[in-house]
Every structure is written in C-alpha cells, then in structure tokens.
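Standup, Tuesday
Yesterday: got the pipeline producing structure tokens again.
Today: sanity-check two examples.
Blockers: none.

Example 1:
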Amino acid sequence: MRALEIKGVATTALTLVFAFAARAETADDFYRAHPKIAIGVPAGAGGTYDLYTRLLARHLPKYLPGAPAVIVQNVPAAGGIVLTNQLYGSAPKDGTFLAMVRGSTIQEAVNGNPAAMFDGRKLAWLGNMNSEYEACVVLRDAPIQKISDLRDHEIIVGATGPGAQSYSFPLVYNAVLGMKFKVISGYLTSPDRLLAQERGELTGNCGYDTSTVLATLYEPYKSGKIRLLFQAAKKKDPRFPDVPNMRDEAKTPEALAALDYMFSTLELGRPFAAPPETPPDRVALLRAAFERVVADPALIDEAKRLQLDLNTMTGAESAASVDGLYATPRAVVERVRAAVGGNP
C-alpha cells in the first residue's frame, strides 16, 4: 500500500512539473524555438495580394522574438476560400501559420457559400495593411466608354473564382443595377487577367483595387493603354476625383444597401489572421508585431517604391469590421447571395 502511495505522489509531482513547464513557456520563448513561420497568400505570385504579403514577410522577422524566417506560400484556389478553410481547419494552431484573408472570402461565408467552411469571427485577426477601393479597367479602344454603356452592351471580364471581388462584384452589378457583365473564371493573378484582356479574350476587368492600378498596372495605366472605367466604394478614392463611383448608380435604398454590403469587404482589403485557438499570448504578440512593422519607416519606404498603399487597421479594428459583415440584415445578404449564386 505504501508503495502505491509513493507511486501516486511521484506521478502527481511529475504531472505538475510538466504542467508548470507548459505554463512557463512564454510567447517569446515559443518563437525563439521556432526558426520558421509561414504566411499564406490567397492568390498567385505577381499580384498585389502577393506583393503586400511578401512586403510584410521581409520586415516582420525583426519584430518577432528570435527573428524567425517567414516563408510565403501562394494558395490561389477558389478566390481565397481554400486558403481560409486551411487556416480555419488544418493549419497549425500554434502561431506558426498565418494567412491573408480576402474580405470577399469572409462575405462568401456570410452569404452561406457551402464551400466556405469557416466562421470569420473566430479567426484571430492581426491587422490589415490596406483598406481599398474597387476599380474596373478597359482597354483604350474598348467600345464601353461610360458606366451607362454597361446597361446596353455586354462586357466580358475575368475572375479568379467565387469568393473574389473580380467574380462577385460584376454579378451584383448585374442583379442590382441591371448591367451586362459576363464573368469568366480561372485567372490566377491580376497580370494574367490583363494579358487576357490584351489578347482580346476579355473586354475589361473588374475587381481590381485602385492600389493595383497604381502598382502592378501603373505603366499601362500611365501610358493610356488601359482606362479606369469606374471606381466603387462607400466613398471615392481622392486620387481619382474624375472617375465616377458605381455607388452613385444605385437609385433605390434597397440597391444602395446591397452595394454597401458588397463595398464593406473593401475595408478589409489586405488583412491577416491566425487560426482560431491560437494561444492568446501569441496572438497578442503577433498583433503588437503587426502594428510595429506597418509603422516601420523601412517598410513604408519600400511600399512607396512598390507603389503600394498603406491604409492600415489594427487587429481589433479588423475583427470589428468582420463582425459588422456578419451583422448585416439577412434580406440584404440574401439579395447579394442570390446575385452571386446566379452566375451561369
């Protein structure tokens, strides 16, 4: 009996030692012990999602304990839904895997898309590098000259796939404003869609951001090879004061509510998150690192050279924006969902 008591005491003591050791490991200790972390990108190489992520990856290590290497992984499938599903489900929940999550992907979950197998409110939001304005471009000699032409003439535009702005926005314009966009999916990056436009496969391209126009599309835009047909957001980009805002085409309160629901995703232009159940102290450390890195003069200078906008949000602000999307009245959500689900 005495031996059993001693064995029980020893087992309890050993359990307490392991429990204390687990508690004693701080977030700083964890990152010093892990020389690599990964960040997923919901797009192929070469587009602005990729550029923003690689910019962050280059500067983030100096703000993490141990300066771990940051590996960028491109996951372009399904307009970002595949990557967000991975982040939510199978990705390590220890702070070694992060991802950029498109605002339009969160909207797909709110819409009830069965492929979006995640709850955006449960992701650990770290911060947003840039809130955006949507834009649609056409070639210089395209027959579409102004927004009103979109009600009279079909325009063929490219998209990555469901869940992307390039896919959803034109379909909502069709349903809510009576326009005639035909959406062709399967293009991985913004440059891919522009090349298809130059080859004559596409009439134009929507779902770009004005930051994309000023970054990866700046030369064809500056030379006049492409025209900015319209912009779209709750307010206009002040850098394009003469370009009309699609929001002004809404003639009823119902139409305006539907567009504003769509445009809410633009606020979440370039946000990053960790998986749910990531330890809170590691989330706090990552949030603090994010706030420091986006204020780093070296990152800001490089962003200027790359012509990437920085209109940042904190992790808490990003989480609040996601919560706002989920709080949208169901009638508005259903109207937009029906429009996006109606693509042939």
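Example 2:
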Amino acid sequence: MAALADRIKQWGAELGFQAVGIADVDLSAAEGRLAGWLGMGWHGEMDYMARHAGLRARPGQLVPGTVRVISCRMDYLQDAPGTVEQELQDRLSACIARYARGRDYHRVMRGRLQKLCHRIEAEAGPFRYRAFADSAPVMEVELATRAGIGWRGKHTLLLDREGSWFFLGEIYCDLNLATDSAVAEHCGSCRKCIDVCPTQAITAPYRLDARRCISYLTIEHKSAIPEELRPLIGNRVYGCDDCQLACPWNRFARLSDEKDFQVRNGLDRATLAELFAWTEEEFDRRMQGSPIRRIGYERWLRNLAVGLGNAPASPEVIFALRQKANHSSPLVREHVRWALERHGVAA
C-alpha cells in the first residue's frame, strides 16, 4: 500500500494536481471545534453546515467503507497580485475573487479527480470510492492538513510555502493506503490576514465569524446585507481575496497554466456600472459555466448595488442605479435605494 500511495501521487501530478496527500479518517479532534463554531452561530445562513455537521467529521458515515482520503490540490492563480490591489483602489471597478473569474472549478476538479480514480482502478483493480469537489459535507482543510498538503493559516484557509491560491478536492476510498504526516505551521507571530480584513471577520487566529466575511455576504448570504457592513465591502462584488493578498507566503505563489481558470467575460477589468446593466438573460448567458451563476441574478444585482453605493458619485453611477430603482425584486430595490441615498440622491 505504500508503493500504491506513491504511484497515486505520481499519477496525480501527471493529471495536473500540484500536490496529492493521503489522510486517515479520524477527525474527532476537529468535530469539537466545528460544534463550537456552529454553537456560536457564526455559520450565519449556511444551515447546511449544521444540518450535516456529523457527516463532516465522520467520513466513514458519509461514504460507508471509507478508511482513507486522498486529498488533491490544484492551483488557479493566473495573474500577479498587484492587479487585484489596483482593482480595489479603483472604486469604479468590480472586484471579483480570483477563483471565480474562470470556469467553474467544481467541474474542473471533479473531472480531474474522476480521471485519477479511473487510473487507480486500471492499475490496482476495482475499489470503492467517491470524489468530492466542495460538493458534500467534507472538512477539506482538515483533511488536507492531515494529508500533509499544508497547514491551516490564521485566516482558516490552507497554506503552504507557495501560498494559498489553490482548490482542494478529495477522494474517499476503501484502500488502506499509507498515510502522510502533517506538516508544521509556518505562520509564527504574523497576523497580517487578521489585520487586513475589511470587516474584521477573523476575530482571532483560526476563528472566522462568517456572518461578517465578505465572501459569505456576497455569495452565501441570501437576504439583505447588514447595512452597517455595506460600506466596508467597497467594490468587492463576489468574494474577497484580501486575507490571501496580505499573506507573505503568497509572494511565492506560482502561476497556473490551467486554461479553464483563465479569465472569462473580461471580469478582471469590468466596471460596476457595466455589469449592473446586464439583463437577466445576459447574466445567465455570460455566466454559463461560471461559479458566479450559482448566486443568481438577484443577488448579483444586490452586490453590485452595494459596490455602486461605495463608488465615487458620478453621472454614470447615478444613472446606472436609477435604471434598477424600480426593479421587481424588493431585495434589489432596497440596496439600490441605499446606494442612491449614499450619494444624496432620492430613489
């Protein structure tokens, strides 16, 4: 099984994974931390986190027969960090998290994991498995940590010496493979990710209040964004990369040559007003195959309205907002009204 584990890592590299590690399934220590986090209500509207809490910490219950988890990393960085920082400074620009600018990573990762499973099956014979790409109650950071792929950073994301610009995927299997050892953490006394967070969502090292996290607010949160947090969101309209941009380890990140993760629809240079003018049909067409499509047109407009409310006042900004002032969605109308009031204009 040690030899097979080595071959699996080699096959993973050949398929385009930047790291492959193997973990056991004893997540009992993490289960208590998860229960405490849920108990504080920090998961916000993510009810599925509580609903499937037990399965997250018990891989053998999620997929009966599981004794090992093969954890895989796929890098997605496409450009230099300075470009995002420039977008944040240009408050008329729509700043979208890097991972969401290309093709939906769920599809890419899931397809690659399936290929790895087929390779294992062809070489080692039939085995029981299920592959996951952020698509089930899986503690992917905890498993990747146990698999030796990296360590948990103070922002709660997985880190290694080449940063954090990568996706994680898992294969639950019944192969009793040799496991890898966890690596030491290398954050030391650094707290840049904590200090840079616009909404102070990282309340302490390794403690994230999702209810204040911009990624949560612009993606997972389905209702109105709390008014006191809207000015802090700035022009971030889908996700937030600030804690990763601040991390010193990301200076050593390598660019990915994965074509599926290349920017689509000009999302690295679009303005807030330009995207706000899209019709629902245009949103659905342009975002086909994009992770952004999952939030739907209504929340897309909600997020953009907040961005326009935080943008410098101009005839273009006011015009854009007024075009949606009577939108059929009460959620959109509320955020447009707030944005116009920010600019001293009646809806």
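Quick observation on example 2: The two ends are 67 Å apart (CA to CA). Residues 2-80+101-173 form one domain.
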